[in-house]
Fold this sequence. Notes:
- The protein is an alpha+beta fold.
- Helix content is 27%, strand content 29%.
- The protein has helices at residues 3-7, 22-30, 72-76, 99-112, 120-134, 209-224, 271-282, 294-303, 340-353, and strands at residues 11-13, 42-49, 53-61, 79-81, 84-88, 94-97, 145-154, 166-176, 187-192, 229-233, 241-244, 248-253, 258-261, 287-290, 306-313, 317-326, 329-332, 364-366.
- It is globular and about 60 Å long.
- The two termini are 30 Å apart.
- It binds pyridoxal-5'-phosphate.
- Pyridoxal-5'-phosphate is lined by residues 83, 207, 211, 243, 246-248, 268, 270-273, 313-314.
Amino acid sequence: xxxxxxxxxxxxxxxxxxxxxxxxxxxILAGELGFGRYFTDHMVAIQWDAERGxxxxxxxxxxxxALDPAAAVLHYGQEIxxxxxxxRHADGSIWTFRPEANARRLQRSAARxxxxxxxxxxxxxxxxxxxxxxxxxxxxxxxxSLYLRPFxxxxxAFLGVRPARAAGYYVxxxxxxxxxxxxxxxxxIWLSREYARAAKGGxxxxxxxxxxxxxxxxxxxxxxxxxxxxxFLDPVEGRYLEELGGMNVFLVYRDGRLVTPALxxxxxxGVTRDSILQLARERGMPVEERRVAIDEWIEGVSSxxxxxxxxCGTAAVVTPIGQLKGKxxxxxxxxxxxxxxxxxxxxxxxxxxxxxxxxxxxxxxxxR
Length: 368
Ligand SMILES: *Cc1c(COP(=O)(O)O)cnc(C)c1O
């Protein structure tokens, strides 16, 4: 089957017969949105099987999926996902950020999980279709957005261990306020020395649910120690920084350098990470992508050579890290004010995403 045939799949739109009223929707959007708590009235569903390829593209009421209890996803975890936002600009138009990067990453994740590749154009069209019907759910408050969650699951009913021959691709959407409850206040991070989120040769570079499942126990440990996220080290030596459970990490040096762990094969290649690297280079900041030992962080923060640390990802954008905690370890100040570099990078990125400055990179794609 050609990619062109896939991309031109016609969507059948079946409007929900229980969509919330405009008043109800506006009441939800005006309240505390949190993250991933409310969902819009519709979702996208596209089916794939080995014989027909991608087919049966629908926009339909948001609601439960009917899955055979033997569906492969429920047993062997064949699942991948994406995270991308729709932003409302001041003139009411709705945009998204670098969707082709997410489309390509979904394809790489699919390849690693032995799942079918969704054509880039079909990925973009799936977002457009959902926004066409649920655009009223894109909030307009500052720093708010509609978080889009495309995902793919193996649906074939078969318990043999091999790549499934049937899959479903879906997009759901959730209006989002600021990601962290405390807003832009610095967060404390828990250093996990006992657990890794991904193995050498494993699925760390793929955006799959299994990586998150592996991160939840150490995440629980983080909460128990007053931290909101976990920092994972490399799975081989347990010495080098990798990333947080769902965000990449950057160190800012007092001398102006911006340092982030090089992609190792077990680090997820964040679109936010890549965009920050580009913006920093354009601003003339010396940028280093390399291995970073955890001792460099600890010593650098203690000596003052490292002036700021932050995490980044689509959901939380850029989040300052105040303190790194671990067993017999506490470096940094949990109440430190947000550093100027962290703030400037966050501002530069969100200015582009919310259309407050010209998009000189061609990163923004209009959805409506
Ligand atoms: C999604 C994700 C990120 C951030 O990627 P963005 O494209 O910037 O949102 C970082 N790490 C992990 C493990 C992720 O799943």
